[in-house]
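sanity check this record:

:::
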Amino acid sequence: MLNLPISEIMNDHPIKVKSDVTVRNVAHLLLRIRINGILVMDVNEPDKLIGVFTMRDLLHLMGDSLAKRSQKMQALHDVGGQPVGNFIKDELLTLEASDNAAKAVALMHKKDAITIPVMANGKLVGVIGRHDIINIAFA
């Protein structure tokens, strides 16, 4: 099963937002759709992927805000109003659609990644997450 190409197990309709969408709105999307990560696209170039924002990122932002003691609720409110693009990390992990599931497992493990965009010929074609890999491994 882990020899399957990612193109056969990925989600080919990934949820995307522009980088100027607020953290608050992205948090609502993550919870409502029940996904662990959302792809963030450049606001000026809608086809350009700039990163992935995950539930883990959201929890880190919340933790940092809540560590502010007396100002924690204001800090939480402030971070919620900021563009999600402000919190995208420099390193963008991607896989190719032709890569196999074993490569996805190895990258997820090595980089502790939850959600990885899938590319083909330099274009975004899908996304693969831990749950996709686990589904095929133990199906």
Observations:
- The chain has one domain: 6-137.
- The radius of gyration is 16 Å.
- Strands lie at 16-18, 37-41, 49-54, 95-96, 115-120, 123-129.
- The mean pLDDT is 93.
